[in-house]
């Protein structure tokens, strides 16, 4: 990356982080280093053009929350927000799954058969299933989830 591109990435990473964090705080409690709560918003900029949210709380993947996150990306066409969904219990092991949100689309990699009934019918307007395009190879194991 050129110096200007790196500076743009750092500036945009911070601007988005500073919007994503308070938005998520409306919908749950943030992990605090030692105790797992509703979600973890990674707070380290790895130089990638995405933010990562890890959660086992399915409230975080409700359509209203996802659409709210997507709206934050308007004007940031290079950026994505990845939501990795993990198993809330220890009895069943869920496969890697999640959502990739960009300004103009949502790639839906959720496997609803593992969810409680009330979450199995969740749909996202304008989404497409993961794996529906060749470029989705970026989003498979060991992909963003």
SSE blueprint and pairings:
Blueprint: H1 3-25, E1 39-41, E2 50-55, H2 63-72, E3 80-85, E4 97-102, E5 106-108, E6 127-129
Parallel strand pairs: 2-3, 5-6
Antiparallel strand pairs: 1-2, 3-4, 4-5
Low-confidence stretches: none
Mean residue pLDDT: 88
User: How many domains is the backbone divided into?
Assistant: 1
Helix content: 10-25%
Short summary:
By secondary structure, the protein is α/β, with parallel strands linked by helices. The protein has helices at residues 3-25, 63-72, and strands at 39-41, 50-55, 80-85, 97-102, 106-108, 127-129.
Q: How would you describe what is shown here?
A:
23% of the residues lie in helices and 19% in strands. It has 145 residues and is an alpha/beta fold. The chain has one domain. The protein has a six-stranded mixed sheet, with helices on one face. Strand 4 and strand 5 (106-108) form a beta hairpin. Helix 1 runs antiparallel to helix 2 (63-72). The protein is globular and about 45 Å long. The model has no long low-confidence stretch (mean pLDDT 88).
Q: Which labels suit this protein?
A:
145 residues; alpha/beta; 6 strands; 23% helix; globular
